[in-house]
């Protein structure tokens, strides 16, 4: 598996050497590319204390041990306290390069208040040549300042520009296992994207023709969507992860903590 199948070398280097990329000095890069890569999702949720416009889930910077893997620059060129906000993916959705090995991966509060307090801590082993996704998920405890977390391997398929690959990740802690379905809006053909997927799990990547699709996540035995999203474009040659996030009990169509199907490109 080669790095250039997944992300640009420049983006990977910047993510791997984050502290250097945020510095205004000229940096000399002499080492080889890291052997593994990881993507970070802030999908922790607050429940009924959230409003339609704000979230009590804090923005975070992600770390592997004490190495900062994500951050946000301010207009002044210094690091912003905004971090990776709720519903966002770190480093603009790019993978962060990292050497294979054992790490404690954490999300740490980026705001000035409670700065660098870890809200998650997960022991992981990253293998050479493999890609991963790390999720903050479930309900954020505002007293303990903790939230669930989990990691899944991104078993990316070989590049194929004649088709699209899609998989499903369930990051909703109060939802039963679900199956994702994708219905082509032109042909009407509906495809199951893998099988039933429980919380903190990922399905396999499934090949479907490129096009525009209506998505629905359903409980086993039900023909009614527990979560839906319409008119999602899948481009041939690309690989996507559809992640279910939010609070499954919320019925509002505008609340920020409503159940939602996030679409993030892996390649």
Please compute the radius of gyration using only Cα atoms.
18 Å
Alpha plus pi helix count: 2
Structural domains: how many: 2
Percent of residues in beta strands? 35-45%
Determine the structural class based on helices, strands and strand pairing: mainly beta
Summarize the amount of helix as a percent range. Answer: under 10%
- Describe the main β-sheet briefly: 5 strands, mixed
**Secondary-structure element order, as H and E?**
HHEEEEEEEEEEEEEEEEE
The count of DSSP E runs of length 2 or more, i.e. the number of strands, is 17
Looking at the structure, what is the overall shape?
Answer: globular
Q: Main attributes?
A:
40% strand, 2 domains, 267 residues, mainly beta, Immunoglobulin-like, 5-stranded mixed beta sheet, 2 helices
